[in-house]
Design goal:
The chain is α+β, with helices and mostly antiparallel strands. It has two domains: about 90 residues, Ribosomal protein S4/S9, N-terminal domain (Ribosomal Protein S4 Delta 41, Chain A, domain 1); about 90 residues, Roll (Structural Genomics Hypothetical 15.5 Kd Protein In mrcA-pckA Intergenic Region, Chain A), CATH 3.10.290. About 40% of the residues lie in helices and about 10% in strands. The chain is built from nine helices and five strands. The protein has a five-stranded antiparallel β-sheet, covered by helices on one side. Helix 3 crosses helix 9, helix 5 crosses helix 9 and helix 6 packs across helix 7. The radius of gyration is 18 Å and the shape is globular.
């Protein structure tokens, strides 16, 4: 699957947030990249603000434009608050669930574990990172992958109680999606209403 493979620190500096996790470069240079990044810039337009919010959401969850738009259109067809439904659907992607369960340290690492068929859903191997996990389904580590160093290191000391929509079974190395997360429980700093307004133009 196509995905962003460029420098992550540059993206984090563009938004002024460590959207890929702790970033040493961002902590030293907390201003936009480029020759004039540290200089005063002109005010961003309303459209620019909305576009930036969409880009931030895409980079945060590792989704490219076409796939992101398809997810938005699906959310728009669902009854409820479109922006919240969009975030809920992004949170229920398999790679994100693997990340939230602490099986992988980052979403990129989670995507790699899924692509390499180290993850099972309800006991069956699923190798599609964008697979949508439904409430009640159990996501776990494939038996032969439980001793992988990257998984053991990620799980060591991870606080599984910080996401109330997930339930973790340490013995099985598996977690259950209890329900789709409420907006207040999603920690990402994304103003989803701006994304809705952008696509509504």
């Amino acid at each position: 699957m196509a995905r962003y493979t460029g420098p992550k620190s540059k993206i984090a500096r563009r938004f002024g947030e460590a959207i890929y996790g702790p970033d040493k470069v961002l902590s030293k240079r907390n201003y936009p990249p480029g020759q004039h990044g540290n200089n005063r810039r002109r005010k961003t337009s309303e459209y620019g603000v909305m576009l930036a919010e969409k880009q931030k959401a895409k980079y945060t969850y590792g989704v490219l434009e076409k796939q992101f738009r398809n997810m938005f259109e699906k959310a728009a067809r669902t009854s409820g608050i479109t922006g919240e439904i969009l975030l809920q659907n992004l949170e229920c992607r398999l790679d994100n669930i693997v990340f939230r369960l602490g099986i992988a340290p980052t979403r990129a690492a989670a995507r790699q574990l899924v692509n390499h068929k180290h993850i099972v859903v309800d006991g069956k191997v699923v190798g599609i990172a964008s697979y949508s996990v439904a409430p009640g389904q159990i996501v776990g580590v494939r038996e032969r992958a439980k001793s992988l160093e990257v998984i053991e290191n990620a799980l060591a000391g991870f606080n599984h109680s910080k996401y109330p929509w997930l339930e973790w079974d340490e013995n099985q190395k598996a977690g259950k999606l209890l329900h789709k997360p409420e907006r207040a429980d999603i920690p990402e700093n994304i103003k989803e209403q701006l994304i809705v307004e952008l696509y509504s133009k």
